[in-house]
From TrEMBL:
<dbReference type="InterPro" id="IPR002872">
    <property type="entry name" value="Proline_DH_dom"/>
</dbReference>
<dbReference type="InterPro" id="IPR029041">
    <property type="entry name" value="FAD-linked_oxidoreductase-like"/>
</dbReference>
<keyword id="KW-0274">FAD</keyword>
<comment type="pathway">
    <text>Amino-acid degradation; L-proline degradation into L-glutamate; L-glutamate from L-proline: step 1/2.</text>
</comment>
<dbReference type="InterPro" id="IPR015659">
    <property type="entry name" value="Proline_oxidase"/>
</dbReference>
<keyword id="KW-0642">Proline metabolism</keyword>
<keyword id="KW-0560">Oxidoreductase</keyword>
<protein>
    <recommendedName>
        <fullName>proline dehydrogenase</fullName>
        <ecNumber>1.5.5.2</ecNumber>
    </recommendedName>
</protein>
<dbReference type="InterPro" id="IPR008219">
    <property type="entry name" value="PRODH_bac_arc"/>
</dbReference>
<feature type="domain" description="Proline dehydrogenase">
    <location>
        <begin position="48"/>
        <end position="304"/>
    </location>
</feature>
<keyword id="KW-0547">Nucleotide-binding</keyword>
<dbReference type="Pfam" id="PF01619">
    <property type="entry name" value="Pro_dh"/>
</dbReference>
<keyword id="KW-0285">Flavoprotein</keyword>
Length: 311
């Protein structure tokens, strides 16, 4: 990553947190057009169509309702209802999908007990439907609280119904991976998408990648069904190589990727017989999610800028 890339990544991640820009930005046509590559629609029905298309290609899905701007306990109730509607719709449509949930959506920044109560309702509903809730990981300020809640839910509902996410950019992650694997918590391993300081996160991409490989090995050695979430072919090759060395069969773990990113790679892995799950976000509040996707690949930003200039 060049110094310019580093700067635009930090700037985009800063902008992703500026709520006042959201309404203005989401009305701009070129911005909306570009976002539609990464977001499956603004409504549940649009997203269900995207899930059906992915299922038809042999991929499973983790569904995410976007809304990081939840401010009141009432709004957190709406999110719980939205997730219950999603779980019901998944059942009714007979699609192969589980759900991903952010604890800030459940009120983690308002009150930890409220977030636990709300998440508990979603996981209880998923358990009744024999489904699974992946608790997304957000900024490092909430890492510990998020893992505390995952552990409580895991103790109550068990391995098949709730799991965690770990980010390899965090210095603490290898230890978290070892501890969660001992407790048989299912993990999605990713690099991490937020703006973090060098005190908690590795500033150099090479260190983030090396930690990803170390943590991937911890996961694959654990005998638990985990998700390796990356579009980085070097990380994927390292995983395939390690799995072969350990004589792990295809299906001992799954690859996970984001909707709209590296579709060629998604299809190639399915063709080679690997389970692939696609993270499918939908909803009206797509601005911060979209900005994080721009930050991951500054070339995306120049594409948006070109279209904005052209009108
Ligand atoms: P990178 O080194 O960033 O990218 C490798 C290659 O992938 C790039 O060269 C490019 O070809 C392609 N690529 C990556 N991103 C883009 C993009 N936006 N647009 C176009 N091409 C791209 N992060 C969290 O912090 N918390 C979560 O809960 C979380 N959940 C995730 C769930 C899934 C299924 C996935 C795949 C990612 C998730 N992430 C999450 C995001 C993750 O942390 C990274 O920010 C993101 O995946 C990019 O990292 P990478 O591993 O693809 O590697």
């Amino acid at each position: 990553m060049t110094a310019a890339d580093h700067l635009s990544r930090s700037a985009l991640l800063y902008l992703s947190r500026q709520e006042h820009l959201k309404d203005w930005a989401t009305r701009l046509r070129p911005f909306r057009d570009m976002a539609s590559r990464f977001i499956a629609g603004e409504t549940l029905e649009e997203a269900v169509e995207a899930v059906k298309a992915l299922n038809a290609k042999g991929m499973t899905v983790s569904f995410d309702h976007l809304n990081e701007a939840v401010k009141t306990p009432e709004e957190t109730r709406d999110e719980v209802l939205q997730y219950q509607r999603m779980l019901a719709r998944i059942d009714q449509a007979g699609v192969k999908a589980n759900v991903s949930l952010k604890l800030t959506q459940c009120g983690l920044l308002i009150d930890k007990a409220l977030a636990l109560r709300n998440a508990r309702e979603v996981v209880a509903d998923a358990t009744r439907r024999d489904s699974f809730v992946r608790i997304d990981m957000e900024e490092s300020a909430v890492t510990q609280a998020t893992l505390d809640i995952v552990r409580e839910l895991h103790a109550e509902f068990g391995e098949p119904h709730v799991g965690a996410v770990l980010q390899s950019y965090l210095r603490r992650t290898e230890e978290d991976a070892k501890a969660l694997c001992r407790e048989r918590v299912r993990i999605r391993l990713c690099k991490g998408a937020y703006l973090e300081g060098p005190d908690v996160a590795f500033p150099d991409k090479a260190d983030v990648d090396a930690n990803f490989v170390r943590c991937m090995r911890v996961l694959l050695d654990s005998g638990v069904y985990h998700g390796i979430a990356t579009h980085d072919e070097r990380m994927i090759d390292a995983t395939l190589e390690y799995a072969a060395k350990q004589h792990l069969p295809r299906g001992a773990y799954e690859f996970q990727m984001l909707y709209g990113i590296r579709r060629d790679l998604q299809e190639r892995l399915v063709k080679d017989g690997h389970p692939v799950r696609i993270y499918v976000p939908y909803g009206r509040y797509w601005y911060p999610y979209f900005m994080r996707r721009l930050a991951e690949r500054p070339a995306n930003l120049w594409f948006v800028m070109r279209n904005l200039v052209r009108g």
